[in-house]
């Protein structure tokens, strides 16, 4: 952390910093207990197939549900969990629980072939047994591997490249799709894209939400759609909040969309009700 600061930067260890560190320590302690108490669980946000208008699957998004029912957002606990290494255990839990949910939906809705995508932190790629964890989640749930998808961000492309590529290839060899999350907000060069195998680009919500009013955002989306086609993949628009944005994404040839317009991330029971309602957008 200090390494990243420039030479000659003077760090003042004052009371504010001490307070911040104490809060982080307390949070770390709480998170370890929460993990043991199974308080980390996935919520599910529907992903809609823009051709049929039907739910194609869900993104699993981590939530920390305190015993009093209060929910903590991943923005609050994922960064710290990455710093202290707890992300590996949280990630493993997310994989296992999401795979079990796929199995449950498979039994209740056998014709729908719903898929669930799970977010992977680039830190998780530091684990030599990541692929084994994925295999174990699939085997324990008894699902077909192609029902599970994994979301990674461009930041991963900066990590230990050859090892990461080998892991991604092993994952895809199992029929598991790799989705590039928040696409357009990172710093990856285009040359990375064809070295790193992926099956879909998820257009970041910041472009989607501006698309109907900012011509440049529309051009960027058009370019991303083209790029995905060249790479042989599909495009998912994130953060769709209005009917107008949905219409724009359809017009621009996006294959799938997700966002508050359809539904917020939901607890498994509510997500199940949504599938049962068989709604068409
Ligand atoms: P993400 O993977 O890009 O997930 C999309 C985020 O956008 C989610 O926030 C989702 O609730 C939110 N979102 C969905 N539709 C809309 C919309 O229409 N408008 C707006 N404004 N937001 C929308 P969430 O659940 O708070 O997650 C935030 C981030 O935390 C995720 O971004 C992901 O990077 C990370 N995260 C969540 N769960 C996990 C996990 O299990 N593992 C890891 N490594 N990261 C996770
Ligand atoms: Mg994601
Ligand atoms: Mg995203
Ligand atoms: Mg994001």
TrEMBL record:
It comes from the Bacteria. Residues 24-279 form the EAL domain. GO terms for molecular function: cyclic-guanylate-specific phosphodiesterase activity. This is EAL domain-containing protein. The lineage of its organism: Bacteria, Pseudomonadati, Pseudomonadota, Betaproteobacteria, Neisseriales.
């Amino acid at each position: 952390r200090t390494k990243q600061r420039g030479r000659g930067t003077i760090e003042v260890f004052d009371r504010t910093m001490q307070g911040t560190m104490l809060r982080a320590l307390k949070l770390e302690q709480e998170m370890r207990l929460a993990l043991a108490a199974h308080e980390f669980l996935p919520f599910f946000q529907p992903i809609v197939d823009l051709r049929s208008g039907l739910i194609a699957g869900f993104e699993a998004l981590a939530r920390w549900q305190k015993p009093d029912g209060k929910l903590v957002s991943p923005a609050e606990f994922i960064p710290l969990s990455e710093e202290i290494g707890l992300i590996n255990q949280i990630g493993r839990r997310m994989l296992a629980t999401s795979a079990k949910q796929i199995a449950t939906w498979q039994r209740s809705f056998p014709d729908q072939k719903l898929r669930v995508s799970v977010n992977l932190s680039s830190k998780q790629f530091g684990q030599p047994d990541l692929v084994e964890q994925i295999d174990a989640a699939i085997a324990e749930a008894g699902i077909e591997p192609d029902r599970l998808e994994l979301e990674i961000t461009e930041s991963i492309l900066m990590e230990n490249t050859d090892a990461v590529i080998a892991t991604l290839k092993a994952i895809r060899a199992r029929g598991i799709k790799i989705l590039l999350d928040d696409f357009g907000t990172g710093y990856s060069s285009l040359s990375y894209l064809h070295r790193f195998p992926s099956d879909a680009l998820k257009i970041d919500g910041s472009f989607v939400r501006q698309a109907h009013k900012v011509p440049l955002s529309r051009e960027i989306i058009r370019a991303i759609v083209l790029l995905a086609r060249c790479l042989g993949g599909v495009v998912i628009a994130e953060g769709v909040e209005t009917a107008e944005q949905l219409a724009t994404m359809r017009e621009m040839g996006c294959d799938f969309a997700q966002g508050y317009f359809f539904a917020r991330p939901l607890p498994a029971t509510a997500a199940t009700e949504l599938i049962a309602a068989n709604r068409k957008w």
